[in-house]
């Protein structure tokens, strides 16, 4: 089977994309110490507040949603029965 | 009676569609939004007011200010893009429904009194349901019926509220109403149903995913945005809207994370986006109202774009279940790029449309010192990126290779998506044009170091959470499933309850009859055991025999009487 190889079929490409992504994340945190942010609320003074909040918020979101599945998930044809 | 109201152009076009076919019909479908937009541009200024007498009543079909004009242009753009997207569909019902639906939305935003609003409110309901029914499946027909019941119910609340409002205030003007009266609350509930307030939202998440691939694009543009317009007009600054809006922004993202049907994911994220608008309206400051309206504008275009990309996948693959998609970027690269543009816009990435409008609402929350609510909204912003920004493109176009190799979307779909994507980037990079159309005078510019850096950190680290959870194997897989939402109450609890209730009542009936009959059985039993029961007449129950013997006795009396005297 000689199907065409696409971009993400090569693991090294995936690795490369992720590396760029991690670099940008690191730069954004560094930028927080160099650039001046206006502060509206006191908690914004925490260094890299938005980065921490975004990460934690999404992890909590996904973990709660996963737990919700135990309560609210039913079969696909639940309402058809 | 002066100018022709713009909605009538759409209604005339709907009539013309009925009597045309082929190319000429397609030309009508495409030309109508363009002509309507030009007509509004050239003929209708802020402050136009015209009414049409019907019997003793004056229907105000035209009341224009910057707010109604902005929505009118938005609806023309939306119906133009949606018409291009649906150009390959040859279905008279859907074509007419599209024109009547968009026309009714225009009618509603130009309505100057509550009765006119009510008329278009109901027309919106009736015309839009055809996009769900046109799917033709049993599920779609049932979902369409539930959708219609909700929409009509909203109309009933509106009419009741309007009449009560007239009774108490003597006015039917569609202006600020507020929550100071029962009438105000009735109208508020009517608007609330249509803008998918929590617990009143299930018509949306139930109906939209069942509509045709092209139908959802129309549906996502008009109904909820007319409701947002109505809320901004009548209930701006009502505190309760802030709390409702924050709830709307937060709760759907949990459902969106575990939902498998990607159009249903988008339906949940639609509620989440409307949450930002409702919050803005609730804050009520000039910046907040402008933000709510601007966000409605960007949302119609990027949410339409996302629904178009999923519509294209549905059209080519036949389903949009995340569990059975993946790797579509290989054969649908253009759709993939458009989907990513939509995803970046809804996530409010700098340079895309969501950023320039959502940040206004967030800033307004900050100015009004709603610290904790602001944190919730920040959570919702991160969540949007997670489920709509990453999940939709990732599970449809990347993730594991599903082996599906569908063809790229048809050319008309690509054109429509391309146009919407271009608009997302245009609004995101040149927000001054959108800002100049906003109803209130506000000096605001979204691009400063603080905003851009904060937003980029938030989004990149939300993405980081996605990558990390996936690598740890903690990310919940896409599973074919149904997730229970508020609709569970009327689709399962009530029907099952009614079934059980009826069975229970039947039992009660049977046992109470038995109970009532038991003394009689007792009497009969004791009678049959008594010595009288042995007599001939008491053996059989038929009253006929009794009557017969009494008749014999009477005849005997008669004979005796004659014989003796």
Model description:
- The complex is a heterodimer of chains A (81) and B (565).
- Chain A contains 2 helices and 1 strand; from the N terminus they run H-H-E.
- Chain A is an all-alpha fold and 81 residues long.
- Chain A is flat, with a radius of gyration of 21 Å.
- Chain B has 565 residues and is an all-alpha fold.
- Chain B contains 21 helices and 3 strands.
- The mean pLDDT of chain B is 91.
- The chains are: A mainly alpha (81), B mainly alpha (565).
- Chains A and B meet through helix 1, helix 2 and strand 1 of A and helix 10, helix 15, helix 18 and strand 3 of B.
**Could you name the ranges of chain B where pLDDT drops below 50 across 5 or more consecutive residues?**
none
Tally the helices of chain A: 2
Order of helices and strands of chain A: HHE
Helix content of chain B: over 70%
Q: Count helical runs of chain B.
A: 21
Which pair of protein chains has the largest interface, and what are the residue counts?
A-B, 49 and 52 residues
Give me the side-by-side strand order of the main sheet of chain B.
1-2
Structural class of chain B: mainly alpha
What structural class results from the helix and strand content of chain A? mainly alpha
Rg of chain A, rounded, reads 21 Å
């Amino acid at each position: 089977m000689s199907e065409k190889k696409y971009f993400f079929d090569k693991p090294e490409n995936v690795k490369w994309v992720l590396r760029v992504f991690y670099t940008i994340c690191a730069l954004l945190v560094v930028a927080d110490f160099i650039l001046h942010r206006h502060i509206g609320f006191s908690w914004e003074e925490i260094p890299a507040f938005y980065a921490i909040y975004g990460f934690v918020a999404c992890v909590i979101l996904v973990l709660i949603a996963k737990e919700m599945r135990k309560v609210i998930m039913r079969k696909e044809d639940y309402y058809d029965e | 009676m002066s100018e022709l109201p713009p909605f009538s152009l759409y209604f005339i076009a709907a009539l013309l569609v009925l009597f045309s076919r082929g190319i000429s019909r397609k030309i009508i479908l495409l030309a109508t939004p363009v002509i309507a937009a030009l007509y509004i541009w050239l003929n209708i200024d802020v402050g136009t007011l015209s009414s049409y007498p019907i019997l003793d009543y004056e229907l105000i079909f035209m009341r224009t200010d910057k707010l109604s004009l902005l929505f009118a242009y938005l609806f023309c753009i939306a119906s133009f893009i949606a018409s291009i997207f649906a150009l390959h569909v040859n279905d008279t019902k859907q074509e007419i429904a599209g024109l009547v639906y968009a026309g009714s939305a225009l009618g509603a935003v130009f309505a100057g009194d509550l009765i006119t609003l009510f008329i278009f409110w109901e027309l919106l309901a009736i015309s839009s349901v055809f996009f769900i029914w046109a799917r033709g499946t049993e599920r779609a027909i049932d979902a369409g019926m539930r959708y219609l019941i909700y929409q009509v119910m909203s109309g009933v609340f509106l009419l009741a509220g309007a009449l009560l409002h007239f009774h108490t205030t003597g006015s039917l003007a569609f202006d600020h109403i507020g929550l100071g009266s029962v009438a105000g609350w009735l109208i508020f509930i009517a608007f609330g149903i249509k803008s998918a307030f929590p617990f009143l939202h299930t018509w949306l998440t139930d109906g939209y995913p069942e509509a045709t691939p092209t139908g959802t694009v129309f549906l996502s543009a008009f109904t909820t945005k007319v409701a947002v317009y109505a809320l901004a007009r009548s209930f701006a600054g009502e505190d309760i809207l802030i709390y409702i809006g924050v709830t709307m922004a937060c709760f759907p993202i949990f459902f969106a994370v575990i939902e498998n049907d990607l159009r249903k994911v988008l339906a949940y994220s639609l509620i989440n986006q409307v949450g930002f608008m409702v919050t803005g309206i609730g804050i009520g400051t000039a910046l907040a109202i402008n933000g709510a309206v601007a966000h409605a504008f960007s949302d119609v275009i990027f949410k339409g774009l996302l629904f178009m990309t999923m519509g294209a996948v549905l059209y080519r693959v036949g389903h949009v279940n995340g569990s059975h998609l993946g790797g579509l970027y290989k054969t649908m690269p253009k759709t993939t790029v458009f989907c990513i543009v939509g995803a970046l816009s809804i996530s409010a990435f700098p340079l895309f449309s969501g950023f320039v409008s959502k940040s206004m609402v967030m800033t307004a929350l900050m100015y009004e010192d709603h610290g904790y609510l602001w944190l919730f909204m920040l959570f919702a912003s991160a969540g949007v990126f997670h489920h709509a920004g990453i999940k939709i493109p990732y599970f449809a176009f990347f993730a594991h290779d599903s082996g599906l190799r569908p063809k790229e979307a048809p050319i008309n779909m690509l054109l429509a998506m391309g146009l919407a994507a271009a608009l997302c980037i245009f609004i995101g990079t040149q927000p001054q044009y959108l800002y100049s159309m906003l109803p209130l005078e506000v000096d605001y510019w979204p691009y400063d170091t603080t905003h851009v850096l904060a937003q980029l950190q938030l989004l990149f680290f939300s993405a980081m959470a996605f990558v990390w959870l996936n690598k740890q194997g903690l990310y919940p897989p896409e599973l074919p499933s149904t997730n229970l939402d508020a609709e569970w109450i009327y689709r399962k609890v009530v029907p099952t309850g009614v079934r059980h209730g009826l069975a229970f009542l039947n039992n009660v009936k049977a046992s109470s009859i038995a109970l009532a009959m038991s003394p009689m059985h007792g009497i009969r039993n004791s009678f049959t055991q008594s010595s009288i029961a042995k007599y001939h007449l008491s053996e059989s129950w038929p009253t006929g025999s009794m009557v017969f013997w009494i008749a014999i006795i009477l005849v005997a009396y008669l004979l005796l009487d004659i014989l003796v005297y």
